[in-house]
Design goal:
Largest sheet: 6 strands, mixed
Structural class: alpha/beta
Radius of gyration: 20 Å
CATH class of the largest domain: Alpha Beta
CATH topology of the largest domain: Pyruvate-ferredoxin Oxidoreductase, domain 3
Order of helices and strands: HEEHEHEEEHEHHEEEHHH
Number of strands: 10
Strand order of the largest sheet: 4-5-3-6-7-8
CATH superfamily of the largest domain: Pyruvate-ferredoxin oxidoreductase, PFOR, domain III
Distance between the termini: 40 Å
Strand content: 15-25%
Length: 252
């Protein structure tokens, strides 16, 4: 760990040392770490977390319009602010809203291939019940599977040509795959000034607070990214993230 007794002048001059007194290079600050350059304590915290880097793969699924890719963007930016190698591979379906969306985020690997292998995801985040079935085969045994219970019936279901899976069927498949189940009911979204908070930011907070992801990324850095990403709705977004952090997900 870094010697925290170093003064600001030493930090500014790049005189970084390990706790045993041995010199070390000043950590690389990526183009995303705009706050680190103005806040020594913040940069020091990033360095401490650099020592905790581990390989961690996240697989995200949902439908267009849910902000699935935004979750991945925020996590990638938070990783880069902590000097954790991050590769983010989003995939969109044909339709902008309601079409299948998936993304793969790989942390701590450099270089890394684009695809999370089957049974290789440490964390699966599924934002829609039926689309969750497409992600079950990617969760590793013992990995976390976070399901947000939003229902968006496909056209075939609305026309009566196909059936929609029950929540119990989805969770049973997750259990059979060896995943640890975390379920967030869509109807229980917290309210901010009388309106439901953004579901994707709420789920993001739950993922950081109730899976191994919170041992890889500093939750305060993720919160900082949430705070600075949008000019409008800052307090609402931070409220949503904090609510997710403290939410007790139901394993059903």
């Amino acid at each position: 760990m870094i010697n925290e007794s170093m003064n600001n002048e030493q930090l500014a001059n790049g005189e970084w040392r390990m706790a045993n007194g041995e010199p070390r290079d000043r950590p690389h600050v990526s183009r995303f770490t705009f706050h680190a350059s103005r806040n020594t304590d913040y940069e020091l915290r990033i360095t401490n977390y650099e020592l905790r880097i581990t390989n961690y793969d996240v697989y995200l699924v949902g439908v267009g319009g849910q902000g699935v890719l935004t979750i991945g963007d925020v996590l990638m930016e938070a990783a880069l602010q902590q000097d954790i190698p991050a590769s983010f591979y989003p995939t969109k379906g044909m339709a902008q809203r309601g079409g299948f969306v998936k993304a793969q985020l790989r942390l701590g690997r450099q270089p890394v291939g684009p695809n999370v292998p089957e049974q290789g995801a440490d964390l699966v985040i599924a934002m829609e019940v039926s689309e969750a079935l497409k992600a079950v085969r990617f969760v590793k045994p013992g990995g976390d599977f976070l399901l947000f219970g939003h229902v968006w019936p496909p056209t075939a279901v609305m026309l009566g040509k196909a059936s929609y899976p029950t929540l119990e069927q989805v969770l049973e498949q997750v259990q059979e795959a060896g995943g640890r189940r975390h379920y967030l009911a869509a109807e229980n979204l917290p309210l901010y000034e009388g309106q439901p908070v953004p579901a994707n930011i709420f789920v993001l907070g739950a993922a950081v607070g109730h899976s191994g992801l919170g041992q890889v990324l500093d939750p305060s850095v993720v919160a900082q990214v949430v705070q600075t990403r949008w000019k409008k709705g800052v307090e609402r977004n931070l409220f949503a993230f904090q609510a997710g952090l403290s939410q007790m997900a139901n394993g059903k």
